[in-house]
């Protein structure tokens, strides 16, 4: 079924691109959770990557729109993002055509990663995209409860949490610092050349929120080590702004998402067991900080 869908998308891209640009060759490059990625050679732009949502609906279109808007805006602010040549939408398929950047993935690059994330969290916020007007903490409160309930139902487990209203009140207990957050900072979403990060991509999860939310996600991904902290200016001061209970809930947001991803979507038993165990650990820590 997966290969069939790749072939279907490949056919659609070839068919729909005829009037937009000339494809000399095109092959599958990568398979993400949300997008299928092709590598192509074009007459107009040379080597490019073409990102195509697996499922075409309003949400996938919004995701590509977000990728297009934030990539262009953040590139102007000095974030290393490959140029986007085309954002194509039709009744049959949507896709982005972006410059292909070659490089490598070093074993350790957390220091450079910390510098880049710090830079991202300080760029100018100028955009008319709807992402700017979303209430991050309202979104998080609803998403945490939704993902937690999904994990309990599918896993036949019991991990009670505060209600959406109680979570929102906790989040609103401190002054939010609103910044662009990528929310999927991983080595797989970066390209390196020598010791420099030359490309950051996949902005479909991006939101406006507090930098500590992103830092907690990066920590749960296992990338927030001493090198990262040294690269991220004023890390301790950022962490000190945010109450412990909020930090824990920021973490819980990530781990609940990963639990559902590994356990019920990807069927990865090993990673699923790890994230489920971590979910229980965080739940107990939240319970120690907040009683209801």
Describe what you observe in this structure.
By secondary structure, this protein is α+β, with helices and mostly antiparallel strands. The protein folds into two domains: 98 residues, Phosphorylase Kinase, domain 1, CATH 3.30.200; 180 residues, Alpha-Beta Complex (Aminoglycoside 3'-phosphotransferase, Chain: A, domain 2). The protein is 48% helix and 18% strand. Strands 1-2-3-5-4 form a five-stranded antiparallel sheet, with helices on both faces. It has a two-stranded antiparallel ribbon with strand order 6-9. The longest helix has 22 residues. It starts with a helix and ends with a helix. The mean pLDDT is 91. One of its GO terms (molecular function) is transferase activity. InterPro entries: Aminoglycoside_PTrfase (IPR002575), Kinase-like_dom_sf (IPR011009). This is Aminoglycoside phosphotransferase family protein.
């Amino acid at each position: 079924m997966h290969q069939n869908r790749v072939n279907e998308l490949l056919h659609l891209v070839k068919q729909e691109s005829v009037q937009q640009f000339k494809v000399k060759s095109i092959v599958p490059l990568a398979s993400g959770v949300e997008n299928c990625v092709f590598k192509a050679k074009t007459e107009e732009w040379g080597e490019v990557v073409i990102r195509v949502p697996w499922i075409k609906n309003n949400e996938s279109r919004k995701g590509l729109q977000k990728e297009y808007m934030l990539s262009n805006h953040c590139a102007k602010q000095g974030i290393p993002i490959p140029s986007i040549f085309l954002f194509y939408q039709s009744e049959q398929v949507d896709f982005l055509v972006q410059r292909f950047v070659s490089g490598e993935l070093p074993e350790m690059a957390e220091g450079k990663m910390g510098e880049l994330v710090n830079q991202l969290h300080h760029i100018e916020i100028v955009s008319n995209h709807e992402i700017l007007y979303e209430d991050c903490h309202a979104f998080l409160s609803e998403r945490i409860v939704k993902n937690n309930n999904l994990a309990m139902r599918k896993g036949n487990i019991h991990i009670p949490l505060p209600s959406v209203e109680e979570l929102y009140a906790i989040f609103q207990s401190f002054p939010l610092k609103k910044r662009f957050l990528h929310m999927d900072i991983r080595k797989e979403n970066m390209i390196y050349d020598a010791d420099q990060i030359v490309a950051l991509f996949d902005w479909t999860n991006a939101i406006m929120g507090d930098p500590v939310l992103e830092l907690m996600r990066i920590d749960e991904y296992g990338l927030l080590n001493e090198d990262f902290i040294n690269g991220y200016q004023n890390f301790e001061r950022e962490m000190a702004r945010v109450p412990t209970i909020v930090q824990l809930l920021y973490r819980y947001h990530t781990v609940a998402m990963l639990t559902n991803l590994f356990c019920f979507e990807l069927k990865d038993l090993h990673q699923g067991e790890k994230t489920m165990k971590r979910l229980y650990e965080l739940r107990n820590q939240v319970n120690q900080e907040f009683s209801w």
